[in-house]
Design goal:
The protein is mainly alpha-helical. The chain has three helices and no strands. The radius of gyration is 33 Å and the shape is rod-shaped.
């Protein structure tokens, strides 16, 4: 029994999308870490305040709740920014890919036009087409190059 291989994404699209996916995953990890660290620091500060008798338990709970909400809001904002960055990378990759495809098509088109021009020259030399027909087609092909 053979295992089927997972298809590999190749080229620029695959690389850019992989980069975008990594950015999302890292953004989520960073957001989760920030929330945990924020909550931990808030809890430590509040515990210290309670131990020193600076604040009451009720005040500490209220403050902890505020800090948790703030940390959650910041994490959501961080995730949204990561998603925007992914979209930016995807758009940029699409533009780069389209530009390169256009260049390749243009160079293929130019090469093809030159081959046609060469064939027309042979046809003119063989007497299959007239000088006028050759010159007319030559102008058309050279305009495209």
């Amino acid at each position: 029994m053979t295992k089927s291989k997972k298809p590999q994404s190749r080229g620029y699209i695959g690389k850019f999308l992989k980069t975008a996916d990594k950015a999302i995953v890292q953004g989520i990890k960073d957001a989760d870490k920030a929330i945990r660290e924020g909550i931990k620091k808030a809890d430590e500060s509040l515990d210290t305040g309670i131990e020193l008798g600076i604040i009451s338990t009720k005040q500490a709970r209220i403050e902890a709740k505020k800090l948790r909400k703030q940390a959650e809001k910041e994490a959501i904002l961080f995730q949204k920014n990561a998603e925007k960055e992914v979209q930016r990378i995807r758009k940029q990759s699409e533009q780069v890919i389209k530009k390169r495809i256009r260049k390749i098509r243009q160079s293929n088109s130019r090469a093809e036009n030159l081959r046609i021009l060469e064939k027309l020259g042979k046809l003119k030399k063989a007497g299959v087409i007239t000088e006028r027909e050759f010159q007319q087609k030559k102008k058309e092909l050279l305009r495209e190059i």
